[in-house]
Hints:
The protein is mainly alpha-helical. Helices cover 31% and strands 0% of the residues.
Amino acid sequence: MMKLKISPLRQRQTIGGLIGIVVGITVFVFYSLDASEEYISPGPMNIGHNELSCVTCHSDARGNLSQQVQSNIQHAVGMRKEGVDFGTQDVTVRNCLECHDRPNDRHPSYRFSEPRFKEVIKKIDATTCITCHSEHNGERVTVVAINYCVNCHQDLEVENDPVDVAHTELIANEQWFTCIQCHDFHGNHKYEVATKLKDTISLARIELYLNGGEDPYGADKKYLGLSEPEWIKHLEKNSK
Length: 240
């Protein structure tokens, strides 16, 4: 009986392929473990999210691994109109609003979906939270510049303006950095706004706050959400 001879090259290819499969499965299983979260996070969690687990925001994608691979290959070769999420579902505004939606928000994301803001969102897309709050950076706010108010408020006029330097003058001088010295963007704090520019919150204090420091607008809130333990419990329940 004739024995089928397998070339050394084919043997090496087969062995290499098997090793690759074993290593791939091992890595996938390792990174799927809860204990491995610290190894796969691209950076530190943002302030306030420190105690959350990955699955709080990154829920499993639909289908098993084989189905996800097959669907995305079909999409790549034109056999399928759209690809699918691989591993985990993409994080969207909906994920953020599960905890951060407030009825008194001055700048809710849906407001910027109005046609009149069509040109504005080309400059700063306020329809997505990550425009200003990109995750895994260990900071509250990650927007590059704090002059974002310029995009919507160039024509702002305040009746009976209470500030010693009028808003119209600040706008004319393009002093947009002064806005955040009086106004927190989402407007959830109760505090008395200064009537003199020199008495407003300093940019140094605001910068410390954005990097995780004490809240310069105070602890008195108009809308109180869940306590931190309740918040974490709520998130983990809704991520299952």
